[in-house]
Write a structure and sequence with these properties.
heterodimer; A: about 525 residues; mainly alpha; 3-stranded antiparallel β-sheet; 23 helices; 3 strands; globular; B: about 140 residues; 5 helices
Chain lengths: ~525, ~140
Amino acid sequence: MAAETMAAGGTEHAAQMAHVALTLADQLPVLQVLVPFLAAPLLVLIGSKRLAWPIAYGATTVAFVISILLLLRVIGGEVISYHLGGWAPPLGIEYRIDAANAFVLFLVTGIATVVMPYARVSIAREVPEQHTTLFYAIFLLCLTGQLGVTITGDAFNVFVFLEISSLATYALVASGAARDKRALTAAYDYLIMGTIGATFFVIGLGLLYMVTGTLNMADLAERLADQTGNRTVRAAFAFIIVGIGLKAAIYPLHLWLPNAYTYSPSAVTSFLASTSTKVAVYVLLRFMFSVFQPQYLFEVKTLEFIIIPLALLAMFAASIIAIFQTDLKRLLAYSSIAQIGYMLLGIGFLTQTGLTAAIVHLFNHGITKAALFMGVGAIVLRNGGSFMDRIAGAGKTMPWTSAAMVIGGMSLIGVPGTAGFVSKWVLVQGALEMGWWPVALLIVLSSLLAVIYVWRMVEAMYLMPPPKDVVAREAPLMMLVPIWIMAGSCIYFGLNTDLTMAAATSAAKGFMAGSAGMMLH
Amino acid sequence: MADLWADFIIGHVNYWLFTVLMMTGLYAVVAKGNFVKKIIGLNMFQSAVFMLYISMGKVDGGTAPIFPVDMKIDPATVYTNPLPSVLILTAIVVGIATTALALALIVRIREEFGTIEEDDILEMETAMAAEENRLHGQTMGGRA
């Protein structure tokens, strides 16, 4: 295998160098996917319950370190192109890393690394003991799939990795069956809808391949540039948007999400809620802006007539549904659907500010939801349920967990000083830049709905007496530390926006440049 | 009229088959209440996509894309495009994995719920949710 960091246009030159530089640093793109991918079968082969967790944790940590190294290299706007097996694109499969996907890789591996220690205690309680080894193997496969989807520059590769992560996700959701048997039907529903979504995506790719004869994203972009009137391309665009939309839980396509999040084990919910839909949103961005062009989006008017109205609908409808939930996990699941609406709205602005808001919210919502779902998981562990009456009094019985959840809740609303504020601020700025002040008003109004459902959680935790059978016991340290790392990063990324804003702005710039962004430098 | 028949129907016969099979499969997924039947529909749906890809790679008069052992390739030979077939091999594997996982889930659902009919399961789940709301709503002073 050979890799090289190359300048666009210098492909021939780079191909000559292919077998010269073979240091570990050059192999980082493929190691990012390979480390968790190889660790998964290793766990099963070793088959030791004692070793399963350390190996899985080691693999996620290594992946996190790799993603940091990659992010540092590309944050300035450089593009890394890695050729698998030394086969140059468009014939070979290419991993292409720019600021946008390095940022998503950073989020996904970061969440996985924080969730892992949390999972040890939580999973021991919620998943039968004989399944723990397999559980960690599936978890790593899910991570592999998500990393692969994010890193690859080959359109068909996206589908394959998408299915790896999805298959793993169905199994992870179903592993909640020990706590509630509805996890099985939730996983089944998710499987049906996820497969339909993925198959739609493949149909779209097939149509694109018919028109262009290539599957490399950069190559596709180049050959699609003068095909704006082609009906096959339009059909392909529609299939791809709907297919990925199902995975991203865009508002009317979200039906699999609430049950899947409610009934899967707490650690799985924390991981999925903060990564899987975000990765899908990233794929949506990649196809809308890099493969198709921003100008193409103008011409087909998908954004004005479909994405923006649905985004606004999601922000309100899902928030209102969230307000009336008895189960805190389900409440947060509906809130996730609403938050995806904000990301779509940012995309819909089709300006650099809007895209920056979408990308930064993708990250900020990821850490916020991780903190909240991990908090709920801790309460499930101690109080035996995620219903509001089991949450009641947690402020007294579990003060540290509750405090972290309040911080997460504030970030969800967008209180200044938290991560959620940063992204909403940029989003409102984007709306005002376009002169769409009613939309800016709607963003603020829907945040007020978030105040209501977050307040329901806070009220239950601090103003209600704990149930009589609950003993005051704080969550174990192995869970409390990850929860506070996430709550802490909600505040850290709310005050220090250097990293997040720099990465998001750089990514948005690349996207707004269209396919030229893929060729940047 | 004859042109329409020749070009539009016969000329695009693979697309017609693809569309009909795809819609049949999707209909089965949506309309059938039996979980196994849904999976059969899902398989039909995926097979339709496989057909689309395979027919796409076919070159008129093209032969199987296999080079002779001595690697003496006759430039006059036309080969079918192998790439769509390769992609579909991958997609078939993915499809099999999905089907296997779905059937495994159905076995577990049968164990837990005692049925694989969607209507019966929905009824049970609604009852479970109503019971939960009664229990947890009341302890909250009826505010659920």
